[in-house]
Specification:
By secondary structure, the protein is of the alpha+beta class. It is built from 4 helices and 6 strands; from the N terminus they run ααββααββββ. Strands 2-1-6-5-4-3 form a 6-stranded mixed beta sheet. β5 and β6 form a beta hairpin. The protein is globular.
């Protein structure tokens, strides 16, 4: 299954981002390597390995019932802006983009948009494409 189009890789990546904004740890775990590595603002500049670090954020008390939380407000919407796929080999690719997340807020406008620059490395392992590394930087 290493033969995958760039469009299919972008679809997998978008599915992963949707899982993140919707608090869907089951899908997140399905799409990520158990040995996932990352550098992101929450790691405070450290390289973190494995899924336990990320699992913590999915199961914070405010995220325990995402369905109930989103029933009162619109579910977040995620967009990959300027997405670019670079194939490293038949079984590895890097996707870079700016992630835009639109969500409801209690502010004056009733909504907010956040953005972050992201790079995600995908690898086909035993016939399944998995996110094996990412780097995320907040953009102000």
């Amino acid at each position: 299954m290493t033969d995958i189009s760039n469009e299919a890789l972008l679809t997998l990546n978008h599915r992963l981002l949707e899982a993140i904004v919707n608090g869907d740890y089951t899908t997140y775990k399905e799409l990520c390597s158990p040995e996932l590595t990352c550098i992101e603002p929450e790691t405070l500049g450290n390289v973190v390995m494995g899924l336990n670090f990320h699992k913590f954020y999915f199961f914070l008390p405010s995220n325990n019932n995402v369905a109930a939380a989103t029933a009162a407000a619109a579910a977040p919407h995620v967009t990959m802006s300027g997405a670019h796929v670079r194939r490293l080999s038949p079984d590895a690719a890097v996707i870079s983009y700016v992630r835009l997340v639109q969500s409801a807020s209690s502010g004056e406008d009733g909504h907010k948009t956040s953005k972050a620059s992201e790079t995600r490395v995908w690898q086909c392992i035993n016939g399944t494409w998995l996110n094996v590394h990412f780097h995320r930087s907040l953009v102000e």
